[in-house]
Amino acid sequence: RDKGWMTEHLVLYQGFWLTPDSALKAVISIQNRFYPRPSDIFLASSPKTGTTWLKALIFATLNRTCYDFSTHPLLVHNPHDCVPLLDTFIHQNDLESWPSPRFLSTHMPYTLLPCSMTCASSGCKLVYVCRNPKDVLVSKWKFMNKLRPKHLPPLSLDEAFKLFCEGVSHYGPYWDHVLGYWKASLENPEKILFLKYEDLKREPLEGVKRLAEFLGKPFLVEEEKAGMVQGIVRLCSFENLRNLEVNKRDVIRFSKDIVVENRNFFRKGNVGDSENYLTAEMMQLLDEITKKKFFSSRLIFGA
Ligand code: A3P
User: Fold this and answer.
1) Which of 29, 72, 135, 243 lies 20 to 30 A from 176 at CA?
2) Predicted model pTM
């Protein structure tokens, strides 16, 4: 269906647009041969909503053994190396041999996850992060142009906008992806924590405390007094991560064809950057789609 974003067509599978050679195969593998453990933690997200940041924040929150941040693994490893994407690792690795607790990420829509991951009795926990659709679109447009093969002309904003509004984006329609996790989080708040990028940007300390509590690892009084929460927020801040050597130089191989330079995951990290690119008409149309899609859900985006 779609030659717009990349060279590979997207196919519509059970309401979502997926790359047939990677995402679709991953859905089938996850549904058929992934065995979640009650101690597993999953970060779920649509691409460009702050996945890299949340990987870092959750990884640092889970792995806080001392107050010394000068030797933290995130200083020398990219967040994507610390927290593998289940959707690709399911093919490349023997996840069964991994020690518990496993912390993995996924871009899969909620309805495509196996019941063994989503049913309340499975024990594992899911954190979902979403972001206002206008910033997601601009972030995605910029990112996809970095990945585009040299022989293709850059994707115009008009083309990207049209595809995104039609719902044709990786793991899209974006709104349906968000709604799936939103509804599930309302039904089962102990299992799914639903977060917004904008809230985390506004109140990162509160966000990290919430994450820690949800994951069953609340901060102890002495940890708070020692500045542990502030330390995690500082370590994982956009400015800090972006300026680390590891995030400036290395690449991540998501699949045979998709190799991404780490630095491409750190662009601006702002709320509302879409205003610098989208026309007033584009913003209005996206707002209208969002309003319509979320009408009966009580879900709103401030920005
Ligand atoms: P922008 O393109 O708007 O700058 P993902 O990790 O899901 O691919 O999302 C990438 C977006 O998150 C990019 O947004 C990127 O700059 C931003 N980002 C990456 N690390 C961040 C951090 N530590 N804090 C805030 N935003 C971050």
Assistant:
1) 29
2) 0.96
